Amino acid sequence: MKHTMYHIPVCPFSQRLEILLTLKGCRDQVDFQVIDITKPRPDWLLAKTHGTTSLPVMELPDGRILKESLVLLQYLESIYPARPVAQQDPYKHAVESMMARMEGDFCNQGYRFVMNQNPTRQQELREGMLAQYAKLNDFLLAHSPDGTYLFDDFGWAETIFTPFFMRFWFLDYYEDFQLPDTPSYQRVKKWQAACLAHPAAQQVTREEIVKNYYDYAKGAGNGTLLPGRQKSSFVFEPHWKTRPWPPKDKYNTSATDDELGLNG
Ligand code: GAZ
Predict the structure, then answer these.
(1) Where residue 223 falls among pLDDT bands split at 50, 70, 90?
(2) What are the φ and ψ backbone dihedral angles of 232, each rounded to 5 degrees?
(3) Which atom of ligand 1 is the closest one to the Cα of 8?
């Protein structure tokens, strides 16, 4: 009997689990079941989760339920010990765990920035995002000044952060946000580039992120509908590949379902 992962394919928290399993050579050991975020959760799933809606959720072969991506990562790391992704040395694992603790603020800042609808707040949000990258830069300089990754290879911290580096393609597209070429960001830039290129982390593409997250850029998260729209940018049909690139100028335009190619 397999473990089952109920997930939203484009969700960063579930990509972490796919990356970890890919690194461990165990991707096929877990049965990934796709849930459509644009529809109400099915009753059978709500019964399993006691009414909570956030995903990913994992079901053990005996029916017990676990959730929270960081918890699930640790659980999968424990039940598939053959190819560890986390550092085995207690000090080194503590270091990567300290970096993991920075993921919440990093994530929140990026989503606040993309979801912002007030042009007068753009500068402040840009600076906040840069401050987050500067913290990662300082951490890497302290613990891995000359390396590429935090340790020798793509590992625990990289598994946790890479899905956000990929989601933040939406900041490049909708906010024209890039890291400046100054020393304050050099180390984190090197890290980010290596993370983005790693073969175990290729579950999503820039085009998929930019198209699916249009509604986030217009202020609507988690598959909710914007005024005047019948369809969420997170719908599975029509497939994102067939849809046009959305307008970049989120502050002055609101694309219709038709303009987004959501009517096929
Ligand atoms: N802490 C959980 C974990 O597993 O690590 C977070 C899981 C989660 O937020 N899942 C989202 C979900 O299922 C999908 S991915 N939402 C539907 C629901 O009913 O709750 C959302 C944010 C955010 C950052 C990212 C995301 C996101 O705020 O990508 O706010 C809602 C959702 C900073």
Answers:
(1) confident
(2) -85, 150
(3) 14
Q: Name the pTM for this structure.
A: 0.97
According to CATH, what is the number of the domain 3-79? Answer: 3.40.30.10
Handedness of CA 205, 58, 38, 36 (dihedral sign): positive
pLDDT tens digits along 251-263: 999 999 999 999 9
Integer Cα distance of 113 and 129 in angstroms: 8
CATH number of 90-201: 1.20.1050.10
* Stretch(es) of the chain classified as CATH 3.40.30.10: 3-79
Among protein residues, the one with the nearest Cα to ligand 1's atom 33 is: 108
Q: Which among 5, 7, 10, 11 is the best mutation to test ligand 1's pocket, defined by most ligand atoms within 8 Å of the CB?
A: 11
Cα–ligand 1 centroid distance for 13 (angstroms)? 7
Of 133, 141, 137, 138, give the one whose Cα is nearest residue 168: 133
The residue-averaged pLDDT of 23-46 equals 95
**15, 20, 39, 55, best to mutate for ligand 1 pocket (most atoms within 8 Å of CB):** 55
Average pLDDT over residues 51-65: 96
Distance 218 CA to ligand 1 centre (A): 17
